Amino acid sequence: MVITRFFLLLSFIMLTISNVNALVREVGVSSNEMATLSLRMGQSTVLRFNEQPVKGVVGNQNYYNVEFIQNTNDVTIQPLGEVSTNLFIYCKHHTYGFLLKTTKNGKYDDLVKVRWNSRPSSYAYNNKSKKRVTTFSIKFSIKNVINFSVEDITYNSLAKLWIIDLNVNNIGQDDVELKNVTFSITRRNKALQFQPPIFLIEKLKKNDSGRIRIFLNLKIKQGFTLHASYKEANAKVIIPRARLR
Description:
Blueprint: H1 2-21, E1 22-29, E2 35-40, E3 45-48, E4 53-58, E5 64-68, E6 74-79, E7 85-91, E8 95-103, E9 108-116, H2 122-126, E10 131-142, E11 146-156, E12 161-170, E13 176-177, E14 181-187, E15 190-191, E16 198-199, E17 203-204, E18 209-216, E19 224-230, E20 233-239
Parallel strand pairs: 1-9, 2-8, 3-9
Antiparallel strand pairs: 3-6, 4-7, 5-6, 7-8, 10-11, 11-12, 12-18, 13-17, 14-15, 14-19, 16-18, 19-20
């Protein structure tokens, strides 16, 4: 009987400690600042938005499970390993960026209410999280099928990623399934690493246009070549170093 009471007390203490470590908080995100999330192995963290999440991309997909809860504005994250990475959640009107930090013990985010900061905080402008932006347009095409336009390249020093925004237009006669459009990035014929592209729409009908976003980790700030392929057709364009400021 004494042993049973001891284990009940121990269970209550462990539950209490777990509840103390589980945090509920609110964070602000903007185009110039990301939020850091504290995750813990064996626990799920819920992100709650004020708008409907559409898609998400994780820097290291092998170590995180991300689920979109149907008919809600909630997204759950469950770490599968102690690896830090970044996460971008695409909603109808905004793109939210997060840095994921995972540990085995200690405090973690149980529920995070995410708001969009229409005006970036002074932290975003006065610290290394500041985005440097270059606006321009470089066009290339897969003949008679797809036109591409590199609309913008932005740098986020928190995530240490260059973000390439492409506009794509179907100039052919048939529908284009964007999942069949593939990309590669090279420099001096050597492949550079980048995260899987995000297609904000799945299909382009004739004369339709859409947007694609690519996340690139450049160890050296030099120009590179962006390649696009669709079926057996190919196209490429050189992004000069001067555009990476």
